[in-house]
Amino acid sequence: MFPAAAPVAQAVQPPPKVFTVQEAISYALANYPAVRAAMASYNAARAGVGLARTNYVPFVDGLWEADRETRASVLGVLLPESPTILTGTQGTVTPGPAEPFWLTGMGTLFSWQPFTFGYRRSELRAAHATETRTAAQVTLTRLGVASAVADASLAVLASEQRVKASQADVTRRTVFDRSVHALVNANLRPGADASRADAELAVARTSLIQDEQAQQVASAAFAEALGMAGTPVRIEAGPFLETPPESIWAELPLTNHPAAVVAQKNIQEIQSQISVLNHKFYPHLTLNGLEQWRGSGEETSGRITPGLEGLEPTIRNWAVGLSVQMDFSQYFLIRENKKIDLANLHRQEAVYDLTMQNLTGQMQQALAVLDGARRVAQNTPIELASARMSESQARARFQAGVGTIVDVAEAQGLLVQAEIDDSLARLSIWRALAELASDEGDLTPFLNLAGSMPGGTP
After folding, report:
1. Helices then strands (H, E): number in the chain?
2. Gap between the Cα atoms of 432 and 368, Å rounded
3. Half-sphere exposure of residue 150: CA atoms within 13 angstroms, side-chain side
4. Are 159 and 211 in contact (CB under 8 A)?
5. Can you tell me the distance from the alpha carbon of 451 to that of 185, in angstroms, rounded to the nearest whole number?
6. Signed CA dihedral, 301, 306, 309, 312: sign only
7. Is 227 left (phi over 0), alpha (psi -120 to 50) or beta?
8. Confidence of residue 1 (pLDDT cuts 50, 70, 90)
9. Nearest to 17 by CA among 290, 228, 288
């Protein structure tokens, strides 16, 4: 006989983390990967501004070099190479074998452009334009994350209300099913009524299973929106099962919406790039200062100097000068790049117009949805009260033998639908308010309204 296998220990499921809607939004804004990625892009753009400022700093380069070489010169000139392989030599042609010697050199080069005809300033402005555009992108990303969390949290509450209504329906139908079976067993009702009651109960249980499945899916989506995918989470109902007040916040201008701001900043960024190109085709004036020390182990006669053979720098030279450089071939490259940027500018201006069109349309749709949700919420209490009375009367008529089971089934179906409609009506108003705030570009008024309600978090 083999020993009985030990039972496998069940993994202990951690308790779900409970959030209010306000806490969920705050958590997501601090932890969601998209927000962190947008902030990293903004920090990189800020560093780009600092990089553009370094163009105002003088350039200082130091060098020390020591070579063991020969110098046998030939007449003629070699063309430049890239990379350089054949190096030139200086001096007279010296026939005969070349003796090796040491050559050393060290020096410092100071370079500075005193003015650039506005080129550096335009580069700095372009860097600032990129910084402000990425800052606006961060705001837009935060709005998207906050809106997604608000919608996901209210969707979880809506799924919970559906489950409660379905559970109540199953409970009612279970009690009714037992009473029908009792009547059938007493030969007071035909067996078909029991079959119909069983079928109605099974349908109600199936609906409950589907609603529970939808609740689990909504909870998983909520955890993903928080940046906690795979973690059990729950949402507190707070004030969102109550009817919000009729008066809400003042309407905000759509030009302040983060999407509109991002589109506008994209236009300004391209304009700054065009400004850089406009200032690029100018002479480059550079003030140079050079100090160097050289040492060579070869004398002019070709004799190798005894001792250190040139390892020590002994000759000092210095030079100060102003150089003016201008690449005329850049004109055609700059002209074509400006054509590209101008086309991108026109495209971005069209994108801005399209963004404003979309925001205006979304705003009007949100207002229409809000108005419809309020009117539905005013009607559902009448629907629920009538459905409850109808269901009660249908059961009484059935028990008295003057009603059919079909009448009861229809009344019970009407009641569960009325319960669902009534439980979701107030949530629908809050979801419409959240969508309206999102379309205006700021969820703060929505959160303040929820915080001012009984049970809300300030």
Report:
1. 8, 6
2. 9
3. 26
4. yes
5. 57
6. negative
7. left
8. very low
9. 228
CB 271 within 8 A of CB 345: yes
Q: Model-level pTM?
A: 0.81
Residues, the chain, total?
458
C-beta of residue 66 within 8 angstroms of C-beta of residue 311: yes
Residue among 395, 353, 364, 368 at smallest CA distance from 172 = 395
Residue 83: asked if its preceding bond is cis (omega within 30°), the reply is: yes
% of the chain surpassing 90 pLDDT: 52
Check pLDDT > 70 for residue 442: yes
Q: Which of 145, 149, 141, 162 is nearest to 233 (CA)?
A: 149
The answer to which of 17-26, 29-38, 47-56, 84-93 has the lowest mean pLDDT is 84-93
Greatest Cα-to-Cα distance within the chain, rounded to the nearest angstrom? 137
CA distance linking residue 51 with residue 42, whole number of Å: 14
Q: 446: burial class by Cβ within 10 Å (0-12, 13-18, 19+)?
A: buried
Residue that the structure tokens 């350089």 belong to: 84
Long-range contacts, stretch 301-304, CB < 8 angstroms, 24+ apart: 302/94, 302/99, 304/99, 304/101
Helix axis angle, 21-31 to 33-53, nearest 10°: 40
Structure tokens at 80: 């430049």
Angle subtended by helix axes 191-226 and 119-185, to nearest 10:
160
Q: Is the per-residue pLDDT at 8 higher than 80?
A: no
Q: Do residues 349 and 312 make contact, with C-beta atoms less than 8 angstroms apart? A: no
**CA–CA distance, 442 with 359 (Å, rounded to integer):** 13
Tokens of 191: 């067996």
Residue 159 structure tokens:
């799924």
pLDDT at 33 over 90: yes
d(CA 231, CA 235): 13
Check residue 57 and give left, alpha or beta (phi > 0: left; psi -120 to 50: alpha).
beta
Domains and CATH numbers, the chain: 22-66+97-451 (1.20.1600.10)
- Sequence letter at residue 101: F
Please check the confidence at residue 61 and state whether its pLDDT lies above 50.
yes
Burial class (CB in 10 A: 0-12, 13-18, 19+), 300: exposed
pLDDT digits (tens, 9 = 90+) for 170-211: 999 999 999 999 988 888 888 898 999 999 999 999 999 999
